[in-house]
Amino acid sequence: MTSEEEHAIRAWLTRIEETDPATIADVVHQCRYDMVGRNYLLALAAANKPQPKELDATGNDDRRTCNQCNNLMGRRCLAALRGEIAASRDHEPIRDMLMRCEGYAPKLTDPDQRPGRVRWPGLNRREVQMNDACDRSKGTKESDEVSDQRGAHS
């Protein structure tokens, strides 16, 4: 991990008001050895511009911890295991950090029963844009192959 990447991750942790030194150390340590997790946090840091507070339209904090999610099994994230979020399959999230996650699955005690992809649709906007770009490039490649095959037969 470069010093610039560590700085971006630490700045993001500051933006989400993470102050626990042990949690910060755990995140930085994990990012040094887990490239997928590091890239995920760097994408979050780039996508989430500094805001005065993480509040929804009603003035409430709409973030959740992994401890509040049905996808947390022990120390592992089941959404990551199933490949539903951009993280390694054996992702061990920071369970008590408030965040917005597209893989969030509310427990019965959560008054808002919408899953993360519905609750925070902007989180996977980059993923959708990347998939669209891949689809377009595949479509162009396939149409070029068809044109090449037609040209070979004439």
Automatic annotation (TrEMBL):
<protein>
    <submittedName>
        <fullName>Uncharacterized protein</fullName>
    </submittedName>
</protein>
<feature type="compositionally biased region" description="Basic and acidic residues">
    <location>
        <begin position="124"/>
        <end position="154"/>
    </location>
</feature>
<feature type="region of interest" description="Disordered">
    <location>
        <begin position="105"/>
        <end position="154"/>
    </location>
</feature>
